[in-house]
Design goal:
The complex is a heterodimer.
Chain A lengths: L2 E3 L4 E8 L2 E8 L5 H7 L2 H8 L7 E6 L4 E6 L20 H6 L2 E3 L6
Antiparallel strand pairs in A: 1-6, 2-3, 3-5, 4-5
Chain B lengths: L3 E7 L7 H9 L4 E4 L6 H11 L8 H16 L3 E4 L6 H14 L6 E6 L7 H6 L20 E6 L4 H8 L4 E3 L7 H11 L6 H14 L26 E5 L4 E5 L9 H8 L9 E2 L4 E3 L4 E6 L2 E5 L2 E3 L4 E21 L3 H19 L5 E7 L13 H5 L3 E10 L2 H5 L2 H4 L2 H4 L5 E2 L7 E12 L6 E6 L2
Parallel strand pairs in B: 1-2, 2-3, 3-6, 4-6
Antiparallel strand pairs in B: 1-7, 4-19, 5-14, 7-8, 8-12, 9-10, 10-13, 11-12, 14-16, 14-17, 14-18, 15-16
Helix pairs in contact in B: 1-3, 3-4, 6-7, 7-8
Classes of the chains: A alpha+beta, B alpha+beta.
Pfam family, one (chain B): AtuA
Protein name (chain B): ABC transporter substrate-binding protein
InterPro entries (chain A): AtuA-like_ferredoxin_dom (IPR056362)
Chain lengths: ~110, ~450
């Protein structure tokens, strides 16, 4: 089973509210939606981020837009000026999600 | 059929004024909304105002937008709604009045909305039993009461609409919700009822797609950033609404892109549950929303539903949390990361000997893992031939003196540490750390008022 970056089949954007980061993830082609649905579960994302995201991750599905919204609590090291991270607003959390490796079936992508 | 067009002129305090000015000069719009307030902007403004009572608002709105194109907007009957008033609404109004008088704009009507700042009401609300629970963390509000900089409720469209009904050419608010700046003129123009939740939700989503300026028109665009036309002249988005339709487009002759993907990326930005996007005006449901490209740089938005607004308002409390310092040292090939890492160890041993009591320390390596942190590629292959690497050490302490201890210890490592360390950017400064206490307040704790000042 080949392994690819989520980035190969998806795009999106990250935003912040306090210490909560949200990353919306859209399929680059309609047929990729089901791959993202299968591969990028909140559990897998939580395991992927490890200590970087300390709180709960919720996934919301918006099939009419071909996408998902991931809401990650306690994900920004405190958020805004509280965070000691260089990227305190989590502008790069979107690309961090896209960096996740996912499994696809032969011929699926 | 009646059509109303509204543009997004600013995405934050410090944004470029170019697109707003271009839009006023070239686009067929009746309204513009300019958002200046991020979550912590008001705390920064409150701090500025403490030092100098004439400050505390976003002067850029006057100096960079109105001075350049405000008179033209007025002549073209483009009315502007903005939360540039920040913590000092009347200060912002005075600055606008001075500008308009100087520009000979007799009859220019400045509307402004007061009542969002409720710091002085906290003791009374606490007495009445309101506990200000923190959305994000456990904690007792009483522990921060003495350290509060600002306390502002996110208010809805009502005060702004009131000013527009009185003929305001420009409306200044404090912490109006970003999207309310856009909903207010749309509701006013179409005469939507206060409980017409579906239409209010459409107005809010128009605002949501516009309130971040360039981000709604090809800025910060992951899908295909290489092919955004003329990013150096990026236009900001415009919403065109009729009773039945909502289109997102942009001004003629500017850069940027409006397509399904660009609108999508902004669509769920900073939304949590798509079926319940809470705003002071309406609980928005975009879980069945649709986007359709219907022309060049034109996307139709459909399927937006609304539900009754929440009973309470979101309250943003900014308070003093402590202090931080950020220090950096750069290293070059060979073994750039190994040297930077060893240097961090040396510094930390020294700080231990100095007895620094930090409440939190964050060490990262710029060029390697300062952005993606734990998910960055730290494989041997990634590290092997690194050209350069910047050590970054951030220290937080509630005690300013503890935080300052590390400052003089960084530059000596150029001579006393691993080879090739280069110190740049000058000595670190101790910076104040402000924090947010996100909570709610009952609507009736606020007294929102609309005012009009006419330039003589």
């Amino acid at each position: 089973m080949p392994e690819i970056y989520l980035n190969d089949i998806a795009h999106g954007r990250s935003g912040d509210k306090g210490d909560t980061s949200n990353v919306c993830v859209y399929a680059r082609k309609p047929e990729y939606y089901k791959i993202i649905q299968r591969e990028v579960t909140p559990e897998k994302l939580k395991a992927y981020f490890g200590d970087m995201v300390k709180g709960e991750i919720t996934r919301y599905e918006v099939p009419s837009l071909g996408g998902f919204n991931f809401v990650m609590k306690h994900a920004l090291g405190g958020g805004a000026t509280m965070s000691l991270r260089l990227d305190s607003l989590g502008k790069s959390m979107g690309s961090a999600v896209m960096r996740m490796k996912i499994h696809v079936e032969d011929g699926e992508v | 059929m009646k059509k109303v067009a509204i543009g997004g002129g600013q995405g934050f305090w410090g944004d470029s004024p170019d697109a707003a000015i271009h839009m006023i000069r070239n686009a067929d719009i009746q309204y513009m909304g300019c958002d200046y307030l991020a979550e912590l902007t008001l705390s920064i403004m409150a701090k500025q105002q403490l030092k100098d009572p004439s400050k505390g608002f976003a002067p850029d709105f006057v100096t960079r937008i109105l001075k350049e194109a405000g008179k033209e907007a007025w002549q073209k009957k483009i009315r502007i709604c903005t939360n540039a008033g920040g913590m000092n609404i009347t200060g912002c109004v005075d600055a606008i009045k001075n500008w308009a008088e100087g520009a000979g704009m007799s009859g220019y009507k400045i509307g402004y909305v007061t009542g969002d700042s409720i710091k002085e009401k906290i003791p009374q609300l606490l007495k009445e039993g309101w506990t200000f629970p923190n959305f994000d963390y456990d904690g007792d509000f009483n522990s921060i009461v003495d350290k509060i900089y600002n306390c502002n409720a996110y208010i809805g469209h009502e005060g702004i609409e009131g000013c527009l009904a009185e003929g305001a050419d420009v409306v200044i608010t404090g912490r109006a919700a970003d999207s309310a700046l856009f909903l207010a003129p749309l509701k006013y123009e179409f005469g939507w009822a206060a409980d017409d939740w579906d239409n209010l939700a459409r107005g809010i989503m128009a605002g949501h797609l516009l309130e971040c300026g360039g981000q709604g028109a090809g800025g910060n665009y992951m899908y295909d950033w290489r092919n955004v036309p003329r990013m150096d002249e990026l236009g900001f988005p415009i919403a065109e609404l009729t009773e039945d339709t909502m289109d997102i487009t942009k001004a003629p002759d500017c850069g940027g892109i409006i397509c399904e993907q660009s609108v999508k990326e902004q669509f769920l930005y900073e939304v949590h549950d798509p079926a319940n996007y809470w705003t002071p005006d309406v609980d928005v449901d975009v879980s069945h929303a649709t986007l359709t490209q219907i022309g060049e740089n034109r996307v139709r938005v459909g399927g937006i539903k609304g539900k009754p607004r929440p009973d309470t308002l979101k309250l943003c409390v900014g308070y003093h949390k402590g202090w931080k310092t950020v220090s950096m040292l750069s290293f070059a090939w060979p073994d750039a990361y190994e040297k930077a890492q060893y240097c961090a160890e040396v510094i930390m041993k020294k700080m231990q000997r100095r007895g620094m009591k930090a409440d939190d320390i964050h060490i990262s390596y710029i060029g390697l893992n300062s952005l993606h942190l734990g998910v960055a590629d730290m494989s041997e292959e990634a590290l092997k031939n690194l050209n350069e690497c910047v050590l970054r050490i951030a220290v937080f302490s509630e005690d300013k003196n503890e935080c300052a201890k590390i400052i003089p210890e960084i530059s000596p490592l150029q001579l006393n540490g691993p080879p090739g360390a280069s110190f740049f950017g000058g000595r670190a400064h101790v910076q104040e750390v402000m924090a947010l206490w996100p909570t709610t307040v009952p609507r009736d704790a606020l007294k929102i008022e609309s005012h009009i000042l006419e330039v003589k």
